[in-house]
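User: I'm writing a tutorial on reading structure tokens. Could you give me a worked example: one chain, its sequence, then its tokens, then a sentence or two explaining what the tokens reveal?
Assistant: Sure. Here is the example chain.
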Amino acid sequence: MGRLLFRVAAGVAVVLAFFWLLSVVVGLLIWGVVVALAVGVVVLGVRMLRADSAGRGR
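And here are its predicted structure tokens:
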């Protein structure tokens, strides 16, 4: 009975560790997408400002 309980506890620990690791990976992917979107918006804004200032200077 003790070994069975130990195996069940080990199995539950492995499943919990797997889902925790999966949530960490998904969280990092979401943060990566958010950072990429922020960088893209900044780059697009800089390009638009440069294009606007180049058009006015002529």
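What the tokens reveal: Residues 41 and 47 are 10 Å apart (CA to CA). The longest helix spans residues 2-57.
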